[in-house]
């Protein structure tokens, strides 16, 4: 791999190897403290961030590398100068570019016109670094990910897309339950279903939350994606029955709860579940750093 633009670029052996490396880096960080010595990584962010920015910055430092953060106070990348020129110039100095953008096309252009690895730290279509951390988290709970049943409940978005590709490649069974009109992108679902069939997994879509059962973990996200101007009050009624609460967790038989954060407490998930014994949210947050460090080591060494 030269870049990470989407989870779908992984083969199953590559994805499993990355998760294994992430476990090793997490367990023995001292062995990797010079892995990126002499390397400089530019973090190019159009959108605000807590977990992505901090986990990359501190993670790069732990690997012995140097991180430079650039925000876009003047607006989207490409307005002041073209994305192509931006990518070519950054490639003169940096060893890699980590980009968090509004449009996935911007990520693709950075990879096309730059000459260094580009990592998608979030776009409108995908959030691959989040999904890597999520599957690392599940791999710490289950010996065989192909036997895991994961349910995603709520609004189909960029996180859902990356989770779908990851589940399909790993041969998992993933069920996506959304209100009508809020399913993930149809082409991405079709591609994920084809990958799942290839690897012995299964992708299931439903609008009936009452039928959700026999799950190992339930995952949800905010009902409105970052940058969406929709009023939360306008969709609460439509999404109300898709809230993850104790009753849903018990009915589905799910031991674990997952959320990429930030969460709206009492909206898509109750405090009881978010702070409960089976909640993996802080493990997911920590694992952002370890999964991303494994990715950086894989791409740059």
TrEMBL record:
Q: Where can this protein be found?
A: Cytoplasm
Q: Name one GO molecular function term.
A: ornithine carbamoyltransferase activity
- SUPFAM superfamilies, A to Z: Aspartate/ornithine carbamoyltransferase
Residues in Aspartate/ornithine carbamoyltransferase Asp/Orn-binding domain copies: 147-298
Where in the numbering of this chain does the Aspartate/ornithine carbamoyltransferase carbamoyl-P binding domain appear? Answer: 2-140
What is catalysed by this protein?
carbamoyl phosphate + L-ornithine = L-citrulline + phosphate + H(+)
Query: What top-level branch of life does the organism fall under?
Result: Bacteria
Q: In which pathway does it act?
A: Amino-acid biosynthesis; L-arginine biosynthesis; L-arginine from L-ornithine and carbamoyl phosphate: step 1/3
Where would you find the membrane-spanning parts of this chain?
A: none
Q: What is its EC number?
A: 2.1.3.3
Positions contributing to L-ornithine binding: 158, 221, 225-226
- Give the binding site residues for carbamoyl phosphate: 100, 127-130, 260-261, 288
Q: Does the keyword Transmembrane apply?
A: no
What GO cellular component entries does it have?
cytoplasm
- List keywords of the entry alphabetically: Cytoplasm, Transferase
The enzyme class is transferase
InterPro entries named among the record's database cross-references:
Asp/Orn_carbamoyltranf_P-bd, Asp/Orn_carbamoylTrfase, Asp/Orn_carbamoylTrfase_sf, Asp_carbamoyltransf_Asp/Orn-bd, Orn/put_carbamltrans, OTCase_ArgI
Which N-terminal residues, if any, form the signal peptide? none
Q: Which HAMAP family match?
A: OTCase
The protein depicted here goes by the name Ornithine carbamoyltransferase
Instruction: Recite the lineage of the species.
Output: Bacteria, Pseudomonadati, Pseudomonadota, Gammaproteobacteria, Alteromonadales
């Amino acid at each position: 791999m030269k870049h990470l633009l989407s989870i779908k670029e992984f083969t199953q052996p590559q994805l499993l190897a990355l998760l294994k490396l992430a476990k090793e880096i997490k367990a023995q960080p001292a062995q990797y403290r010079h892995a990126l010595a002499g390397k400089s990584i530019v973090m190019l962010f159009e959108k605000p961030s807590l977990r992505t920015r901090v986990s990359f910055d501190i993670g790069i430092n732990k690997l012995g590398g140097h991180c430079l953060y650039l925000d876009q106070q003047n607006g989207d990348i490409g307005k002041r100068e073209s994305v192509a020129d931006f990518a070519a110039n950054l490639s003169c100095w940096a060893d890699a570019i980590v980009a968090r953008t509004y449009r996935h096309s911007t990520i693709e252009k950075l990879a096309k016109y730059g000459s260094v690895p580009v990592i998608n730290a979030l776009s409108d279509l995908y959030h691959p670094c989040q999904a890597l951390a999520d599957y690392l988290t599940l791999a710490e709970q289950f010996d065989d990910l192909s036997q895991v049943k994961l349910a995603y409940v709520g609004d189909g978005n960029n996180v859902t897309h990356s989770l779908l590709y990851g589940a399909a490649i790993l041969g998992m069974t993933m069920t996506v339950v959304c209100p009508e009109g809020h399913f993930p992108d149809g082409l991405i679902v079709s591609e994920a279903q084809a990958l799942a069939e290839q690897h012995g997994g299964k992708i299931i879509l439903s609008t009936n939350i009452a039928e959700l059962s026999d799950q190992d973990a339930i995952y949800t996200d905010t009902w409105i994606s970052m940058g969406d101007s929709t009023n939360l009050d306008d969709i609460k009624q439509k999404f109300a029955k898709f809230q993850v609460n104790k009753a849903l967790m018990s009915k589905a038989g799910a031991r674990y709860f997952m959320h990429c954060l930030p969460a709206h407490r009492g909206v898509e998930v109750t405090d009881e579940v978010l702070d409960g014994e089976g909640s993996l949210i802080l493990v997911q947050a920590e694992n952002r750093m370890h999964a991303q460090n494994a990715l950086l080591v894989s791409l740059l060494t």
